Amino acid sequence: MSKRKIIFDTDPGIDDAVALLTLFNYEDFDVLGITSVAGNKGIVHTTDNASKLIRYAKKDIKVYRGAYSSYSRVKAGLPAESRDGGNVHGADGLGGVDLLADPSNISSISAIDFILDTVRKYPGEVEIISVGPMTNLALAIDKDEETMRKVKKIWSMGGGVFRGNVTPVAEFNYWFDTVSVERVYSLGNDVDIVMVGLDATHQCIFDANDLTFIRLAAGEKGELIYAMVQDYLNAYWKFNKYIGIVIHDLLPVLMAIDPSVCSKLVHSNLRIVHEGLTLGQCIVDLADSWKLNKNAYVAMEMDVRKCKELFMEVCFGKEVKENYLSVFPTL
Predict the structure, then answer these.
(1) Residues 248, 249, 285, 303: which is the catalytic one?
(2) What one-character DSSP code corresponds to residue 154?
(3) How many domains in the chain?
(4) How far, in Å, CA of 184 to CA of 134, rounded?
(5) Closest Cα to residue 184, out of 148, 223, 212, 218?
(6) What percent of the chain is modeled with pLDDT above 70?
(7) What is the pLDDT at residue 92?
(8) Which residues of 23-44 are buried (b: 16+ CB within 10 A; e: fewer)?
(9) Strands 262-268 and 296-302, sheet pairing
């Protein structure tokens, strides 16, 4: 059976990094390329961070540099605004771990052209896992909407129904570029778009025991991830009073690998607020009150145990998963 064709659109970011290291290890995925976008950090950092992770994982994959700012600013030719994820991800976006970029794995082809060329080559086969602002996808729609309607599926980490993080009602990725969110979900009639938002991701907290297990039992990669998440740990204690972390961008990767990790997925109409106090808020009609076109599949409940077990197995191997089951027979 042929492998599934994947483009990973990302703004690394600590949780992006963990998601990417997991994605690289799943043998049934053919990762065709990594597209970088501004978000958690500026485009130079996010492109370099993707390059660092490819080099660390020893993968023959290219990074394609994407949008330097939000859709509206790119279209207007304005410089990038200074509104990234702050110090949540450390100064460099990867928690300060000592990894080197490899200029040879950064392509001269733009992210937008790479996405379109790839979908044209494999119409109806390419799945995009989007874990940053959706700017690259929106710009690709502008350039060739017909081709973008031939994407097989989009898995998106972003948004929220009942909670936010950058404001009380808005999640960072969708808040950063609301226009792109609207552009992408306009494909919803032709492309299945799965929104894995904060309602889903915050159910899966990797607590201090999980993280200590990863450091002690998961080898060099486990030690790297543990070192990487220290700024993240501090941020979650400061803002959420969690002794642990939420690895948001990991969840759509796990769902793409095994959709059954989501125990409640609602087909719904999704719209987003573009201005005012509720900028970035997702309006998700879970009850189908408006009887409008259903353009999104929204993850609302996760099987947390299944998520953690799948992560341990795919990212670190079956032996680490078996050890995890032995040490933590129940949650």
Answers:
(1) 248
(2) E
(3) 1
(4) 7
(5) 148
(6) 97
(7) 73
(8) bbebeebebbbbbbbbbbbbbe
(9) antiparallel
Enclosing domain of residue 191:
4-327
pLDDT at 314 over 60: yes
Q: Name which of 144, 117, 157 is nearest 20 in CA terms.
A: 157
* C-alpha 79 chain-centroid distance: 24
- Closest among 242, 239, 241 to 211, alpha carbons compared: 242
Residue 17 belongs to domain with CATH number:
3.90.245.10
Give CA–CA dist 95/269, Å, rounded.
37
Predicted TM-score of the model (pTM): 0.96
177 is catalytic: no
The one-character DSSP state at 77 is T
How would DSSP label each residue in 106-152?
EESS-HHHHHHHHHHHSTTTEEEEE-S-SHHHHHHHHH-HHHHTT--
- Between CA 124 and CA 152 the distance in angstroms is 5
Q: Integer distance in angstroms from the first to the last C-alpha of the chain?
A: 35
Backbone angles phi, psi at 2, to 5 degrees: -70, 150
Q: Is the separation of the CB atoms in 244 and 331 below 8 Å? A: no
The answer to whether 11 is a known catalytic residue is yes
Give the active site residue among 9, 11, 16, 177: 11
Indicate the SS3 state at residue 320: helix
**Is a pLDDT exceeding 70 seen at residue 91?**
no
Output Rg (C-alpha) for the chain, integer angstroms: 18
For 248, phi then psi, to 5°, come to: -50, -50
